[in-house]
Design brief:
With about 220 residues, the protein is an alpha/beta fold. It has 2 domains: about 140 residues, Rossmann fold (3-Layer(aba) Sandwich), CATH 3.40.50.1000; about 60 residues. It contains 9 helices and 8 strands. The strands form 2 sheets. The protein has a 6-stranded parallel sheet with strand order 5-4-1-6-7-8, with helices on one face. It has a two-stranded antiparallel ribbon with strand order 2-3. α6 links the parallel β4 and β5. The longest helix is centred in the N-terminal third of the chain and has 15 residues. It comes from Salinadaptatus halalkaliphilus.
Length: about 220
Amino acid sequence: MAPQSAALADYDFWLLDLDGTLVDVEWSYTREVFDRVGDRLGREFTDQEADIIWSGLTGSRDRQLEAWGIDPAAFWEAFHDEEDPLVRAEQTYLHDDAAFVAELEGPVGLVTHCQEFLCEPVLENVGINDWFDTRLCCTEETGWKPDPTPVERVMADLGVAHNGHRGVLAGDGANDVGAAWNAGLDAIHVERVGHERRGQCVLGDYRVQSFDDLQ
């Protein structure tokens, strides 16, 4: 078992997830979006169900939707239609312990499932646009974590692919850990929601409750 804290200087480059890792959104916003999506789909979402999908607590969101008898394509079309980028940005806050990213030396990349039309206003609102040398918002074309393809694309953009540089990906979900390992990187899992709420323990090379635990 790897130690539970990592030294920042151990890595030549860093990749990070966004939602749930560096930033989060007020619950009232999440609840309102799921209420409107539910109206469109003719199905109510409980608080627990909204939390599971929003935070990806069970891994693949599409598989979870299918298990509930919901067509993922119809859900995501309604979901993205109901998200207002400016409101989303206003309701998003930066985790205090994320400040370490601004001090990282070497290349830093962002790999997120947050869509570009939402990502840009969020980054601007919380003032972290300049933290990243490159960023990628996953799509059907790029693939979704834990698929390593989006991670590998960011590594290529940073000029650190296949050249012996040691890198790490930090995120709040099992998909982030899987993407890191599939791309040959170390994985840091930051547990934002707690094991009881998640219903399982996510293993990574390093597990922390806060980035303040990093050395």
